[in-house]
Design goal:
Bound molecules: ligand C2E, calcium ion
Distance between the termini: 139 Å
Radius of gyration: 49 Å
Length: about 700
């Protein structure tokens, strides 16, 4: 089989090259596995990889030496052969250890390459020394040196290539690159092997040539196939592992991405894209973690709440409500400073954490800016919407040392701002807490009261100023709570409006009052016109007309025996819609009156637009008609104007004969007040009726 001319067996030479290429390929594929794996799997890849690569490199040497006619059939000593194999394995272990490191410095490359080169040379020359005592006697110094140089530079090349071929984030390694690298490396290794073989000089070289076997070299083939087989298996294992790792990495990456998106989702309000409560609380935590007090450590928490947002949402629909919230968010962004965090923490609630220059004066400036920027009309879908805003402010550390205290206190201050007439801001002050606690308690008791039918109505007559006849009756809400005692409507209604409970309560009032009127009538008294107070929230609720129709049909009260009392501000919140609803109510025959006239806009020319039949002059004016010239002048003017507009006038809160005389003089038609009767319970009012209409009783 040996080529008589060159002294090398071409099949074995080709096999050497193949094994060398395979060993290089195995090395390039194993290096990344060793590099990326951790713990036990790293140790396994390293140990297994070293063995396989070592076997591969050693096989090139072994097959190479069998390819020459000189060494082919020489018997070998086992121990040096094993030591030679050991050098191959150790060199591979070193190579794999080097490629595990993060960076390949020139120094590392030089040192690692030299040691590896030395290892390979040792493997080779120890392997050759294993050849029987007929082994080499001398070496050609030039070729010997050359073989060392090739071993060292080849090792360096291998190291450099395996760093180049290491898959890293954002770097794609093609199969083609790896295979070309392996081919070059295989040629270098084979070159080194054959140079080293050529460096060996045998004393009986001439004779050996003749020994040149003509039998196929079974041992060389066996070793080659075993090595190639093992390397193929390891190669496939490493490719499989790489695939697994990359799909794991993809999975981890998509998990990371999903996590990131989830985090963004849970910390961001989808409507306004503002941070939500979660993120705001995180910010507070961060600021609080700085701890301490003094300059630079202070910060302020603003609680911003739109007044009566529910009304807009109920009347114009959620679409407009959402749009309004978005526009509010944009205005707030402009009103706060870049360093402030603005978050949406509820339907119509926003919070701001401001950690820069947060003394009282600058906080007040920000709050003023917020209130005034939101008070300008919003243009949404052709609707001109006006809202007002209440802002509460708490400051760290004076108003609270922890997140919850600061948030609760800002909230408490906001409620105080609402109680102060809305459209304003308040700083937290000690004592506000108890007010808001009372309010929270009131809300929860009120819910119980609704569930347990604990609400009732009181009735106050309306009286003809001239004849003293009863012209009608007004239903007024009463609530006696076991814990809270008597709670006045002035306390209940704002809470009911804020929580939306007013819709339930209002419907109950309407139905109970209408039913009561019918019940008294059924007992033989004249049917009295029943007046019921309406909140803006009811008027603006989209189901309101339906509620009124249902109550009328359930109770059978004729519509013209029902009167609804509304304040000017309730109408003016959304005049276009109010005008439409009032027209529909009027069409049904229901009477409409303006309550507390004089305290609101008091714009009679505006009121002409609405189908109103009656004005009720607020008690604050009538109580002063005999003592205060201005009150008297106002009441006189209002009555005159009402007459010119063909409106009835009811004077509220008449307590004395003098007041009544004044009203009679200026031709007011009706009055209400303690002079005739305070608001009476259902039974008391029945007794009152019995007195007035003895014949019917
Ligand atoms: P309002 O509609 O102006 O009712 C008149 C209030 O003045 C009633 O107070 C009544 O008890 C009181 N009052 C009547 N005559 C006199 C008087 O001669 N002297 C004095 N000092 N007071 C008099 P009340 O019942 O506390 O109601 C307060 C307000 O609560 C009502 O003012 C009304 O705006 C609201 N309200 C009462 N019930 C309801 C209701 O069912 N629904 C709604 N939305 N609001 C209600
Ligand atoms: Ca009223
Ligand atoms: Ca009134």
């Amino acid at each position: 089989m040996t080529d008589a001319y060159t002294g090398y067996a071409p099949t074995l030479v080709a096999l050497t090259l193949l094994v060398a290429v395979m060993a290089s390929l195995a090395g390039f594929c194993l290096a990344p596995r060793v590099h990326v794996s951790q713990g036990l799997s790293h140790r396994l890849w390293w140990a297994g990889g070293s063995l396989v690569m070592g076997l591969g490199i050693w096989s090139t040497h072994f097959i190479g030496s069998r390819a020459t006619s000189v060494m082919a059939d020489l018997p070998r000593d086992l121990l040096p052969t094993l030591i030679s194999l050991l050098f191959g394995v150790l060199t591979s272990a070193l190579a794999l250890a080097i490629v595990r490191t993060r960076r390949l410095s020139v120094c590392k490359l030089a040192l690692g390459g030299s040691v590896m080169g030395a290892g390979i040379a040792l493997m080779h020359y120890v392997g050759i020394s294993a050849l029987d005592n007929s082994g080499p006697t001398s070496y050609d110094p030039l070729l010997f040196m050359l073989s060392i140089v090739i071993a060292v530079s080849g090792s360096m090349g291998a190291l450099w290539l395996s760093f180049r071929l290491r898959p890293e984030e954002g770097k794609k390694i093609t199969l083609w690159k790896t295979c070309s690298g392996a081919l070059v490396m295989g040629m270098v290794i084979s070159g080194m092997v054959y140079t080293a073989i050529a460096a060996v000089e045998f004393p009986q070289q001439g004779a050996a040539l003749q020994i040149g076997s003509t039998v196929p070299d079974r041992l060389a083939f066996t070793i080659a196939f075993v090595a190639i087989g093992i390397m193929l298996i390891v190669l496939m294992l490493s490719i499989y592992d790489a695939h697994l790792a990359s799909s794991n990495a993809r999975l981890a990456a998509s998990l990371r991405k999903a996590n990131f998106e989830l985090k963004a989702l849970v910390s961001c309000d989808p409507l306004t894209r503002l941070p939500n409560r979660l993120l705001l609380e995180e910010r507070l935590d961060t600021l609080l973690a700085r701890g301490g007090s003094g300059p630079g450590k202070e910060f302020a928490v603003f609680f911003v709440d739109l007044d009566r947002f529910k009304t807009i949402n109920d009347s114009l629909g959620h679409h407009i409500g959402d749009e309004l919230i978005q526009q509010v968010a944009s205005r707030l962004k402009v009103a706060v400073r870049n360093s402030d965090m603005l978050a949406r923490v509820g339907g119509d609630e926003f919070m701001i954490v401001s950690a820069e220059n947060t003394d009282r004066a600058s906080s007040a400036t920000i709050a003023k800016r917020i209130v005034s920027s939101l008070s300008k009309a919003f243009q949404i879908d052709g609707n001109l919407i006006r809202i007002t805003t209440s802002v509460g402010i708490s400051r760290y550390p004076v108003d609270g040392a922890d997140k919850h205290a600061l948030m609760i206190h800002a909230d408490a201050a906001m409620y105080i701002a609402k109680d102060a007439g809305r459209n304003t801001f308040k700083f937290f002050e000690p004592g506000m807490n108890t007010i808001t606690e009372k309010r929270a308690r009131l809300e929860s008791r009120l819910r119980d009261a609704i569930d347990n039918d604990a609400l009732s109505l009181a009735y106050q007559p309306k009286v003809n100023v001239v004849t003293g006849e009863i012209t009608g009756v007004e239903a007024l809400l009463r609530w006696h709570d076991a814990e809270l005692g008597h709670v006045t409507p002035d306390e209940v209604i704002p809470v009911a409006e804020e929580t939306g409970l007013i819709l339930q309560i209002g419907e109950w009032v309407l139905k109970t009052a209408c039913q009561q009127s019918m019940d008294w009538h059924a007992q033989g008294y004249p049917l009295l016109k029943m007046a019921v107070n309406l909140s803006a929230i009811q008027l603006n609720n989209r189901n309101f007309m339906e509620v009124v129709r249902r109550v009328l049909s359930q109770t059978q009260l004729p519509a013209h025996y029902l009167e609804l009392e509304l304040t000017e501000s309730a109408i003016m919140q959304n005049p276009d819609r109010a005008s439409m609803i009032l027209r529909r109510l009027r069409k049904l025959g229901i009477a409409l009156s303006i309550d507390d006239f004089g305290t609101g806009y008091s714009n009679l020319s505006q009121l002409k637009r609405f189908p109103i039949s009656c004005l009720k002059i607020d008690r604050s004016f009538t109580s002063g008609v005999n003592s205060d010239a201005q009150d008297a002048a106002i009441v006189k003017a209002v009555v005159a104007l009402a007459h010119s507009l063909n409106l009835e006038v009811v004077a509220e809160g008449i307590e004395t004969q003098e007041q009544l005389a004044f009203i009679r003089e200026i031709k007011g038609q009706q009055y209400q007040g303690y002079l005739c009767s305070k608001a009476l319970s259902s039974e008391e009012f029945q007794a009152f009726l019995r007195e007035r209409f003895p014949v019917n009783a």
